[in-house]
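Work Package 4 report. The design task specified in the project plan requires that, given a folded chain encoded as structure tokens, an amino acid be chosen for each position. We show below one input record used in the internal validation round.
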């Protein structure tokens, strides 16, 4: 991997780290350079990110790190990045349930949310995000997206009494604390899995590309051109 590629992947991770305010969740972004050399932590994170949601063996990771640090025989960085720095890296060795990973395999799941059970030692867990009721309380029992309040008449549909449901922030990840926002049934249902949301209930990304079918032909053509340009230049 070219150094320019490593740097560009690192910047994407850094961007996401800032966008999703991971520092407030206790996640630590490793530095890119130390003594003019790219750090092992940064190399590891970048490599896992280049294969996001795929399993990576420890051997493969070690072979990659060895190009920069020839004396490395046993890469521990992936484990540290998850356990000490909060990155959402599953490990077969640690026995992450349902990960489908074998012993010695790792998988970076997301750069938008921390490892689910992660609590940094330097920081107490945000009060109230450990169960659904207190999460709703944090949002004043309102839908994160439209603001309608539980048990009250819905803002946009007066025939509806607002019912607050668990909405995914990222539909590809499990519905668990850290990936849940309260949403009313009115907002939750039509969005289905089309979008990813941020903590404030705003759309942050398209999740299901089929949504483009709902757009005008004009927009679809623009999308086509944009993607064609992006993927033929690579
Ligand atoms: Zn709503």
């Amino acid at each position: 991997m070219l150094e320019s590629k490593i740097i560009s992947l690192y910047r994407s991770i850094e961007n996401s780290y800032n966008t999703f305010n991971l520092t407030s969740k206790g996640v630590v972004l490793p530095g890119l350079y130390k003594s003019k050399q790219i750090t092992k932590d940064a190399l590891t994170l970048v490599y896992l990110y280049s294969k996001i949601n795929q399993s990576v063996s420890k051997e493969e990771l070690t072979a990659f790190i060895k190009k920069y640090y020839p004396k490395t025989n046993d890469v521990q960085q992936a484990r540290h990045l998850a356990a000490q720095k909060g990155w959402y890296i599953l490990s077969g060795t640690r026995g992450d349930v349902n990960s489908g990973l074998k012993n010695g395999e790792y998988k970076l799941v997301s750069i938008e949310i921390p490892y689910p059970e992660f609590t940094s030692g330097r920081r107490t867990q945000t009060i109230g995000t450990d169960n659904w009721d207190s999460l709703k309380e944090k949002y004043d029992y309102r839908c994160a997206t439209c603001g309608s309040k539980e048990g009250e008449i819905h803002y946009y549909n007066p025939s509806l009494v607002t019912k607050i449901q668990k909405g995914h922030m990222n539909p590809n990840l499990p519905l668990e604390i850290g990936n849940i926002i309260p949403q009313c049934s009115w907002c939750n249902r039509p969005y289905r899995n089309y979008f990813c949301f941020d903590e404030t209930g705003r759309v942050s990304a398209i999740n299901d590309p089929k949504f483009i079918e709902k757009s005008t032909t004009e927009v679809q053509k623009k999308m086509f051109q944009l993607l064609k340009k992006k993927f033929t230049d690579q």
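The CA atoms of residues 87 and 156 lie 39 Å apart. Validation will be extended to a larger panel in the next phase.
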